[in-house]
């Protein structure tokens, strides 16, 4: 068996940052697959997919992409306490497939930069006030990232995948999972 170790458990950054980074990588792959597939079907990806929805009362693909990125950036701030260069206050101006891919790539670079610089984490005693299901809740930084941030991120990238899959893009489970596990 292994000898006893005095190493400390992984930090919240060690846990969360790879999920965000690899999930964004998966999202890039999914978007690029759709962009490549559209012309083979005589489709313009901007017209066929950007405003596509699974159901009428659900927000479109572009919203899912914007909110996946926004969730990552909010949680990078929660983890490190640092303002990040990707300005989410500019408005959601993405109109094309290229715009969406560019946004996801910028976020991926930002997460990678934070990972490489090994940030000092915020104290977990800090309380985050947020809305969940329209109700205000108070969570520690760790709870906010683990229980709200990561599930919210996964929700938006899963929804993006599902919208494109429903529009006929030949995506499978491996297309979604591969970015997370580095295939």
From TrEMBL:
Q: InterPro entries, from UniProt?
A: DinB/YfiT-like, DUF1993
The residue ranges crossing the membrane are none
Against Gene3D superfamilies, the record matches this protein to: dinb family like domain
- List the Pfam families: DUF1993
Q: Which PANTHER family match?
A: BLL2446 PROTEIN, DUF1993 DOMAIN-CONTAINING PROTEIN
| Protein's UniProt name | Helix-turn-helix-domain-containing protein type
């Amino acid at each position: 068996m292994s000898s006893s170790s005095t190493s400390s458990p992984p930090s919240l950054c060690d846990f969360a940052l790879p999920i965000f980074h690899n999930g964004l990588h998966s999202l890039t792959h999914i978007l690029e697959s759709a962009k490549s597939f559209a012309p083979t079907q005589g489709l313009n990806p901007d017209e066929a997919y950007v405003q596509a929805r699974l159901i009428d009362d659900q927000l479109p693909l572009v919203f899912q992409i914007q909110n996946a990125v926004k969730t990552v950036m909010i949680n990078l701030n929660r983890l490190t306490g640092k303002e990040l260069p990707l300005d989410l206050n500019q408005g959601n101006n993405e109109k094309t497939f290229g715009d969406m891919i560019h946004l996801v790539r910028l976020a991926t670079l930002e997460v990678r930069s934070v990972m490489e610089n090994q940030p000092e984490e915020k104290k977990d005693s800090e309380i985050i006030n947020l809305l969940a299901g329209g109700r205000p809740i108070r969570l520690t930084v760790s709870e906010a990232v683990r229980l709200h941030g990561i599930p919210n991120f996964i929700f938006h990238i899963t929804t993006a995948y599902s919208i494109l899959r429903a529009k006929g893009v030949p995506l499978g489970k491996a297309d979604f999972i591969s970015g997370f596990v580095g295939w």
